[in-house]
Design brief:
Peptidase_G1_sf, single chain, about 280 residues, mainly beta, globular, 18-stranded mixed beta sheet, Jelly Rolls, about 0% helix
Amino acid sequence: AFAAQNRKDLCGLSIHTADFPGVGNFSAIEATWTIPGVRPRPDISGMNPPYVFYGVSLCCGENCSSRVSAGMMAAPWAWNETGYSFTAIPIYQLSPDFPQRQVPQEHNFYFNSSDTLWTRLTIESPTRAHITFSKFITDDTNLTVTADIDIGNDGEQPLANVVTRGNGVEVHDPISSRWRNISVAPLCGESAWWFVSDKFDPGEDTERWDPLPRFSPILIAGHGLETTQGKSFPRDLPLSGQARFWTMVRDEAGRTEELCTVKGFVDTGMTMVHAPNAWGI
């Protein structure tokens, strides 16, 4: 694999079609995640907990400048209208043009530390994506929520029409773009990313005042990947020699502090992401 490189906005691993001539673009990505525990900071109130975001992205460009992402937002604590306590909820985003969205609460789809989430993201056309979130209940049962995303226009404003389905409920959620009179970039899969960050809309030049919150190690398994030419991992694409690993850092008092690092064994389908001095699950 490539030597690990530093970024200020995320850690994780990426695969780039530029390193695989003739396979086309990536059309689908998936992973199975463990929900981490997140350590609360003593200097914050319950209304402002630290968050850890993680997920998968299919991107345009080497640096993932335009992307569709699906994953999870985890915190030390949260609650819904009924008072049910949970620590994580699925989210998705078309970036940079649209704000992130949580899976609607009508689906009653929440997670706690050590739960398992399976996420699959598919680009069906330049203007359409499909996302599947599955929560494993037992070895034989799971609860699933899907999201169908169609990009269109509402007059001068781009619009992402989203329909989520799960737990016997269907929710229509139109999302207006962040800006008017823009041309939304088509969805494409020139690179594929499995990432962890302290924000779900990472950018390469992101700066922060606080370090990434401490969190128990996140185990990623089942790195599924498919291309528009019918190639798939692990059947056709041995990724260990082409995976790019990313360490999340910040510059502090003249030294580089590692906030998040990765240990990857990609061709065995296992990657572990952790904060240095990570604490136990």
